Amino acid sequence: MTTELATPGEESAATSTILTIADAGEALRSGTTTSVELTTAMLEKATALNPALGAYVEITSDLALEQAAAADAAFAAGSDAGPLQGIPLAIKDIIKVAGVPTTANSRILDPAWGGDADAPVVARLRAAGSVFIGKSTTSEFALGMPDADKGFPVPHNPWDVTRTPAGSSSGTGVATAAGLAFGGLGTDTGGSVRGPATVNGHSGLKVTFGRVPKAGVVPLGYSLDSIGPMARSAYDCALLLQVMAGYDAADPNAADVPVPSYTAGLDGSVDGIKIGLPIPYFFDHDQLDPEVRDGVLSAVQALVGLGATSTEMELAHADKAQHANALILVGEAYAYHRNNMVERWTTYGKYTRPGLVRGMFYTAADYVQANRFRVLWCEQVAKALETYDVLITPSAPTTAQVAADMNPSQRLLQPSYTGQWNLSGLPAICIPTGFSSEGLPLSMQIIGKPFAEATVLKIADAYQRITDHHLQVPPVDALITTAA
Amino acid sequence: MHSIEEEFGNQLDLALESNGLTPLPEDRAALLKAFSTGREQAALVFSVAEARYEEPDLIFSASLS
Fold first, then answer.
1. Rounded (5°) CA angle A305-A177-A25
2. pTM above 0.80, yes or no
3. Is the pLDDT of residue A6 over 60?
4. For the purposes of burial, counting CB atoms within 10 Å of the CB of A152, is it exposed (0-12), middle (13-18) or buried (19 or more)?
5. Is A45 helix (H, G, I), strand (E, B) or coil?
6. 8 Å CB contact of A355 and B47
7. Active-site residue flag, A61
């Protein structure tokens, strides 16, 4: 099912109804369109909408068109590198792309950071024939909130530009939702792929720690960082992950674990899948929006209707897991930034400074205790996953908040449902479950066993075969008129 | 006798100075909040009885393996 996608200027019938990577792949191979046509339309739209949406730090038009032409030439010569050939993607601007500056949305980072080579994950996408529309906006160093004072584009939620697009993979999230890329790369250390997917109304997968090599990525928390695919559908995330995943010696944390087929099991069936619903904290918190909760429970019922079973259960100390993750994350981040913070304090953004320096306020004993707790948490979750195939929770307690009302310090003590799974290194996907009474995306999170991305994707895909929430496109046409 | 707020402020100043950090006056409110929030988060993690140190330290030993 597709929804008409408006593009600036003359609308191409060929490109206007293509929403997903899978759709685009079909159109490219049937000759309905070309990668140059798709890419040109997307570049025009990205350029027209960037003043209003702030999805990109840099739109790499020349590179994108060169890659698109190469993809078309390859198709014409009978060469097909796979589903990502000719597909326009966004790359989060803390990930190195050869020949393109990496800024991490900061005046601290030397744009030549990372040298001349692609990050391994980018090299894999390039070899698969994909097209890089641009480097997408991020919170400074993947932490904190956008700061307009630093001169970088400020990303906005395309469903309501007064609302946060979440972070830190904001730009890829906005681009995917608004049709300025078919998907792309984000990173997730405490929720930074899943948060933007949640509030922008599409799919985002945090992978098992070590599943995708993270060399060539500016680090935030060494023991927590992961790179994840973001796209409209779980199926598209599977197509992306198939290329991204696998061992690379450049990353000492990369897991030397075989990469299965992520699409073979996407047949709409969830017969016999056992779902655990951890009720305390995730479903009964007084700050959980009832519409969010009801959206998840309806989705679970839909999965039960397809043959899954669901059981209420408990995970003790889920709230403490959120704080242990935050403590480890910021401690590790401060260790990376410490010298720059001493020498170049004011070059950091005003929201990033207190966020990072919190790592200095934790003691060595705090860090040890957080890691001690981490093992306890991992053991508890592993035990639960002996009984259940997956756990399902809300992705976030609320829909997208009004950006002007957000308080970075206040946020830290509010409930959060994503960091627990970084702490345990497990795969977790967030997908849309509908829309709130205010027209904002609702979302659920599916958490799986280590390296069981295929199961998580299977369940998400099965739900998306009977719903179309992930295919809804925000009304960005009016923004084009405003920005022009 | 110092109030809790004054005490936090003194501890914040000592921490910043001993780490060579020179924030702006406009950062102070956010730093105080970050400091107090950080202590609160650490206290919550330490509150988990099953995760506290006991001889032998099986939990932390597991994390090192």
1. 80
2. yes
3. no
4. buried
5. helix
6. no
7. no
**Which residue type, as a one-letter code, is found at position A310?**
S
How many contacts (CB atoms, under 8 Å) link A and B?
A: 104
What domains can be seen in chain A, in order of their start residue? Answer: 20-483 (3.90.1300.10)
Range of the domain at B37: 4-64
- CA angle, A178 as apex, A177 and A181 as ends, to 5°? 80
* β-pairing verdict for A428-435 and A441-447: antiparallel
Active-site choice (A136, A168, A310, A424): A168
Tokens at A19, concatenated? 């929403």
- Cα A145 from Cα A383, distance rounded (Å): 36
Percent residues over pLDDT 90 in chain A: 88
Structure token digits, residue A165: 């697009």
Query: Positive or negative, the Cα torsion across A205, A208, A209, A213?
Result: negative
Reported as type and span, the H/E element at residue A310 is strand A309-313
The position carrying tokens 């997208």 is A400
Q: Search chain A and give the residue with CA nearest B23.
A: A345
Cross-chain residue pair B45–A369, CB shorter than 8 Å: yes
Q: Which burial class, exposed, middle or buried, applies to B14 when counting CB atoms under 10 A from its CB (0-12, 13-18, 19+)?
A: exposed
Task: Return the half-sphere exposure (C-beta side, CA atoms, 13 A cut-off) of residue A103.
Answer: 18
Q: What is the mean pLDDT of residues A220-247?
A: 98
User: Using one digit for the tens of pLDDT, what is the confidence trace for A328-342?
Assistant: 999 999 999 999 999
**Dist. CA A17–CA A14, nearest whole Å:** 7
The answer to whether A396 touches A418, Cβ cutoff 8 Å, is yes
How far are the Cα atoms of A28, A191, A276, A427 from residue A418, in angstroms, in the given order? 36, 5, 16, 11
Helix ranges, A306-431 (H): 318-343, 352-361, 364-387, 408-411, 419-423
Residue in A317, A357, A371 closest to B34 by CB:
A357
- pLDDT per residue as tens digits for the range A245-276: 999 999 999 999 999 999 999 999 999 999 99
Nearest by Cα to A324 from A376, A279, A394, A398: A376
pLDDT tens, A318-372? 999 999 999 999 999 999 999 999 999 999 999 999 999 989 989 999 999 999 9
Q: Please count the structural domains in chain B.
A: 1
Which of the four pLDDT bands, split at 50, 70 and 90, describes residue A222? very high
Beta bridge partners of A429: A205, A446
Determine contact, residues A7/A47, Cβ cutoff 8 Å.
no
A468, pLDDT greater than 80: yes
Average pLDDT value for chain B? 87
State the average pLDDT over residues A116-132: 97
